[in-house]
Design a protein that fits this description.
Length: 578
Amino acid sequence: QEWGDQYDIIDKHTQSGLELVEKYVKFVKERTEIEQNYAKQLRSLTKKYNPKRGCKEEQECRFSNHQSFLDILNEMNDYAGQRELIAENMMMNICIELTKYLQELKMERKTHLSEAKKAQQSLESTYKQLDSSKKRFEREWREADKAAQYAEKTDQDINATKADVEKAKQQANMRTHIAEECKNDYAAQLQKYNKEQSQFYFSDMPLIFNKLQDMDERRVRKLAQGYVLFSDTERHVMPIIGKCLEGVTKAGTNVNERNDSIVLIEQYKSGFERPGDLDFEDYSQGINRASSDSSLGTLGTPKGPLELLGKNRSKPFWLFSKKSKLSPSPSSLTPLSTPPASSPANGPPSPKFGRDPLSYCLKEINKTVKPRISSFRTLGRMPTVTEDFGHLPPEQRRKRLQQKLDDIGKELQKEVDQSEALDKMKDVYEKNPQMGDPASLSPQINQTAQNMERLRLELSKYEVMDSPLLATDALNFTHGCHPDGTPSEEGTPDPSQAIYAEFDDDFEEEEEELVAPIGQCTAMYNFPGASEGTITMQEGEVLSVVEEDKGDGWTRVRRANGNEGYIPTSYVSISLSK
């Protein structure tokens, strides 16, 4: 069945179809821009709420509710990637493909329309020739008819000569002959035009219209495929998007409030012992109160923990601490030589040793202990961040030191592995000189050796820092306490032992420091002794050797005033006693 026979309508219809393809391509392109902007905004949103490296939020990721939020951000980032994939596939499979196909259709349509136009122009040209021959035939036939009438009139005229009559007849015959020739030419042109017109309407134009029909049907089919791809492109990524949403749901179900509480407890557990009970101070009696067996005495009316926290928000306060808030400050202890303070008019006289004789005795004994160790700290002092983490509670200090040791150990192992690899490479170069120069590896080998030596010294330093904590754990266990300060099942310590524990540790350290020296050493370099457990040293200074280097690179020495500490063995010249 023929598609149609109206050229102008077919021209407009095919043009409208191509414009529809262009419109759909533009629509899909704008849709891809929306998807790309949506994905870009999602990525910016996730980046905005993702914690930066080393910030507080990143450290809180050990809690499940914080980690789940990060998981949700990661899933949203993946979800944004899928939206970008939708935009990319739509652009590639729809926009680019249809645009390319549209150009081909335009060229094909132009060719078919050009063929139709040529056929029409050819038919019009033939018709013009036919019309020209027809008019000529008409004109010549009239002239021939006039010439014949003139010849007949001349022949009947009695005044005309025979020559005039003969001339008129010849003119009539000539005109008749020309008219016959024009008639024959007109007949030939008419036959030619009828043939071309039949070819045009029954062959050429139907063929061209069929080609245009086929082209338009292919355009419609291709456009329909583009419509289907519009949904299939998004449907193909739906499983991955579903997994992203499942990941968000899983992040919510992974939150465990109980485990978060346990993690918080383990992170900030101080390890301090709980303070003992306070004694009742009876001021209604006219006698001095008895010395407390479980506390070091107080100044004025004791304050509860909540009151202390409320009034000293800007100062650190350990609620559970061996150095209790109730411990006396040095100014509260009255020396033996200080005269007794005046008493109130209606109160008891002040004792010779102040309000608490035990406090005075502790202070007098503490004067004999080395000044670098303080038995009782004032809680009003802000903790200073130190290299040995001494500003942290015992439990947290132990964890940080252990973490530091692990980090140094990993770094040292990397250097050891690199050193072994360099040694093997050097051996290969020595056996096969064509592969490389062994001397070229010397700088790397030397640098690696220096790094290993530095890390070993650092590791030994932190091991020395960590060893007193292990001793403290053993002491707590011996006294019937766990490292966190809770009483153990084996025994319940006397309340006063918790308060005097640090003083006992200092006294035992003092006894250990009285070990006889095993030699002397002379400092070859200055040493600052900034870390805990070390001691400062000036070049040329002579010190007593108390403990020999055990292979960790550190030697324990003592000054004449009794101060002891560790120094690098390589910094001194040692002479041991025989």
